Amino acid sequence: MSSVTAIEVEGVRQQFGDVTALDGLDLEVETGIVFGLLGPNGAGKTTLVRILATLLTPTAGRVRVLGHDALAAPLAVRRRIGLAGQFAAVDEELTGRENLEMIGRLYRLSGDEARARAVEVLERFGLTDAADRRVGTYSGGMRRRLDLGASLTGRPPLLLLDEPTTGLDPRARQELWGTVEELRRDGTTVLLTTQYLEEADRLAQRIALVDHGRIAAQGTADELKGAVGAEILNTRLADASRTTEAAAALADLSSGEHPMIDAALGEIRLPVASARASAEAVRRLDALQIELASIELQQPSLDDVFLTLTGHRAENRASEGSEPAKAA
Q: What is the pTM of this model?
């Protein structure tokens, strides 16, 4: 393993009865970056985080975290990581300060060290004014910041964030994004799981697309978008009921395999090799008397990449359900 590698995963499988959560997954994460794991619910992201945090033993495979074998030396791994899950794991009956001091003592800090670290974390996450309020009175965004702060109390070099902005309003989400960017600038390596395309695009220096327990592709956001290899013709119909008919009429304009269709929105997205395709699309739809709400050429998004590689979207894939309860 390279000295600059924070995480190394080789051939990891995880079975829950008949369900395969991870299917021979390979991954390498270098230090000093935000690495995004992008995928829908049920893709295997949370299962992988639990394995990296030594909360779950994989069925097969090899895992090293910051140079330590996660299976043979779990305590060494736990001493070097911070973990914030999908839901804030803080005690609502304690104050913010008391929560942080308690976490500090669990990290085996002295009383004075734990108190000093709590003050530092409260200041960093903008919670000083609410430090002595019961956490049950905090907003959702404040609880998430406190939870993230608690995971940093031991100053870990590696932070595992499992969908940290789940359930947050847009303002709280932006605040948390700013915190993650600041952590990276300070030298913390962050593994971030998300199903939000904008989140991965903004925060991560490298991104891996996770689908059905495997890595479908990885690279920088620009590299992944470049894999689509074309501009995207985005067409939205005035009458969504005619989406299938319109998609069939436009299918051979695509430089990829198939148009990407959202029937509920009446939206058809297809990679095209030439800007002239937009004029041809208008001509064909006009001949069928299919009214357009809008049509434009766009640069590929991460969703276009995910659709191209997997055939479905990364966000809100409700039909796939969630990961098994044991993997949550």
A: 0.78
